[in-house]
Amino acid sequence: MAGERAATLSDVAREAGVSLATASRALNGSDRVVRPELQERVLAAATKLGYTPNANAQAMARGSTETVGLLVKDIADPYFSTIAGGLADEAEKHGLLVMLCNTGGQAEREQKFLAALRRQRSRAIVLAGSDTTDMGHTREVADLLTSYLDGGGRAAAISQPRLPVDTVVIDNHGGAKALAERLVGLGYRRAAVLTGPEDLLVSTERHAGFAEGWLEATGSKPAYVADEFSRDGGHRAMSRLLEDGPEADCVFAVNDLMAVGALAACRQAGVEVGKDLAVAGFDDIATLRDVTPGLTTVRLPLADIGRLALELVLGEPSAELRKQSVHGEVVLRESTPPRS
Amino acid sequence: MAGERAATLSDVAREAGVSLATASRALNGSDRVVRPELQERVLAAATKLGYTPNANAQAMARGSTETVGLLVKDIADPYFSTIAGGLADEAEKHGLLVMLCNTGGQAEREQKFLAALRRQRSRAIVLAGSDTTDMGHTREVADLLTSYLDGGGRAAAISQPRLPVDTVVIDNHGGAKALAERLVGLGYRRAAVLTGPEDLLVSTERHAGFAEGWLEATGSKPAYVADEFSRDGGHRAMSRLLEDGPEADCVFAVNDLMAVGALAACRQAGVEVGKDLAVAGFDDIATLRDVTPGLTTVRLPLADIGRLALELVLGEPSAELRKQSVHGEVVLRESTPPRS
DNA sequence: CTGAAAGCGCTAACAC
DNA sequence: GTGTTAGCGCTTTCAG
Which nucleotides of D are covered by protein (CB under 7 A)? Predict the structure, then answer.
């Protein structure tokens, strides 16, 4: 039954017949060394008593924890879960525990989590996907982060350098632009973009990058229709596009999820993607690599991005903000065949 | 710059001109009440000093934390990330922080995480996907869990009731069996199962359930080929099946990921799924709902399962182990049309 | 209602 | 090497 007050270090010390300090040193190899004999006695006592160090007490005494926080918009979204996987892997290597904070994209929650992480004296914080054009919120987050940093914490962001912290910058603009160029190279001439909400930075950047590439290559600006940054958003946007009479021969959905929704909408409308119309996405989500037709997209090394972010935030603190750029790679598949 | 030793409660107390005790009571509404006037003074002092409570110190003093641990095999796998999403949502409602532990299916890591969670004095632990037929490891985990429980912790498992804790039992057997029956009802007569490794319980259960249903309905046992419990495993298994000459008119892959791999293998082999051959999966992973042909599967309420697990582990501790059953629902799609 | 004081479990000077 | 002894920051009796 739940009784038996957990054994503490003093219990172990007493049992081993040594001082508290020695027990402490024996159980966690500090710089000081203890005689092997005592060492053993302490270890034996610890096992005998089923001693487990109390991390909270250690954190207090040492003034630092073994915990890093990770803020994501939605862990169920493969984009974030892949990043989280990479980061979790890296954390494990460093013996760190990851606090998963699912913000649901709500500014309020995001701030609450930040505060909680600060209370926990989390060693570091990584923010993924909290890019918004909402300056009020960005400001608020920046403030929280700053006071966290002042307290000796470390933080990094993934995606856009809008926060006063180190960041793994994802080249959304460049990736989308490169994609546009490739599509033009394949013979496409009229594009439409399926984009997300205006206040979502990833979305607007990809849209802008694509538009820029397209404009430079063809002299014309792609049309666009905005909706949610999700599978259903893509479906709706594409449906609307189709209804309005598709002037386009090629559609760029700003992420793979939207692209898949678009694919479904086409199927339902009897439009054959890869023949009647080309469709491309962005991210190269692993589970989506088997859709038909194969989806042309811009591959992002998501797991590496997670790893990188942790490395960045764990690395030597530097005076100036570091930016680590990550570029996507265009992956051509059947959804955008060369145009005959 | 990072200086300014973070303000502590005593700083606040001094600033407000009250005792430590009063400051504590004012800042976190204990049972005791403080005069509104003082209350205000304390609050003001706290904001002025930018005070943030130290959760570790609170944990020590109170003897309990605001943290729950979640063990998953692979957070990048949509199955687990969806569960994690549901659980994270629920945790947020309870004001709890989630420690994400990515075990990678390694027994050793799993045990390390369990120990870490115990050290952290995590309020509760939820284990997802640690089902193995490896009794040695199961035993080890059971022991760790037991001592954690003895220390006043709470724990729950998702999937199979092999651990001495409350569990959200997923009816893999029943779901697969129901699927088999439906397929037979559709006119299929010769089945093959694409299954995972033998020591993976989910996989063996689904296989067994399907086989039982099939046997009862047709009098014959489905063939099977085993490989990894992943997209690539499904691909390889299906390829092998196809090479050996597909005696089957219908293939059941024990999860959607494998099924998608199988779909790809069929495509490459020129076998048209939904016509030449039927294919079904299990889980109903959201991002896979748009593959073509639509994949027949057994839908599991993954997010709810995550929520449920947390509710279970947070609920009134009961003497006997609780089991909360969750059943899947067969979802018929184009990959298994009625057989003409 | 408020304050003084005793811990919570552990680490890190500081002596020996 | 090993032991003593302050704290780390907060909560919670126990008096007043």
Answer: 1-13
Q: How many CB pairs under 8 A join A and B?
A: 173
Instruction: Please tell me the predicted confidence (pLDDT) of residue B157.
Output: 96
Does the reported pTM lie above 0.90? yes
Closest CA to B126 of B72, B89, B172, B86: B72
Residue B334 lies in a domain: no
Q: Judge whether B2 lies within some domain.
A: no
Nucleic acid strand C within 7 Å of B34 CB: yes
Please tell me whether residues A189 and A218 are part of one structural domain: yes
Instruction: Inform me whether the pLDDT recorded for A192 exceeds 60.
Output: yes
pLDDT tens per residue across span A33-76: 899 999 999 999 999 999 999 999 999 999 999 999 999 999 99
B223 vs chain A: nearest CA distance in angstroms?
A: 25
The model's confidence at residue B322, banded by pLDDT at 50, 70 and 90, is: very high
* Domains contained in chain A, number: 3
**What phi, psi does B242 have (nearest 5°)?**
-65, -40
The chain A residue lying nearest B152, using CA atoms, is: A2
Q: Around Cβ A189, how many Cβ atoms within 10 Å?
A: 14
Cα-based distances in Å from A244 to A195, A235, A240: 16, 14, 6
pLDDT of residue A207: 98
Give the residue from A46, A62, A78 where a domain finishes: A62
* CA–CA distance, B323 with B157 (Å, rounded to integer): 10
Do residues A199 and A149 share a domain?
Answer: no
The per-residue pLDDT for A83 is: 98
Measured from Cα to the C1' atom, the residue closest to D5 is A21
Phi, psi of A218 (to 5 degrees): -120, -15
How far apart are alpha carbons B340 and B331 in whole angstroms?
Answer: 20
| Cβ-nearest to B52 among A1, A118, A261 | A118
Asked whether the beta carbons of residue B99 and residue A102 sit closer than 8 angstroms, the reply is no
- The dihedrals phi and psi of A80, each to the nearest 5 degrees, come to -75, -35
CA of B37 to C1' of D16 (A): 21
> How far, CA to CA in Å, does B10 sit from each of A59, A97, A231, B22?
19, 30, 52, 10
**B78/A121 Cβ within 8 A:** no
> What does R_g of chain A's alpha carbons equal in angstroms?
26
Same domain for A26 and A37, yes or no, is yes
Closest CA to B283 of B221, B248, B328, B235: B328
- CB–CB of A94/B160 below 8 Å? no
- pLDDT, tens digit, for every residue of B150-203? 999 999 999 888 899 999 999 999 999 999 999 999 999 999 999 999 999 999
B191 forms beta bridges with B250
Report how far residue A206's alpha carbon sits from residue B155's, in angstroms, rounded to the nearest whole number: 44
Determine contact, residues B167/B157, Cβ cutoff 8 Å: yes
Residue A143 and residue A58 share a domain:
no
DSSP category for residue B246: -
- In angstroms, the CA A280 to CA A328 distance is 14
Q: Are residues A72 and A151 in the same domain?
A: yes
**Per-residue pLDDT for A164 more than 80?**
yes
Q: Which range (A28-32, A327-331, B70-74, B140-144) has the least confidence?
A: A28-32
Any idea what the CATH number is for the domain that residue A77 is in?
3.40.50.2300
pLDDT, tens digit, for every residue of B63-122?
999 999 999 999 999 999 999 999 999 999 999 999 999 999 999 999 999 999 999 999
Note down the domain range covering A32: 9-62
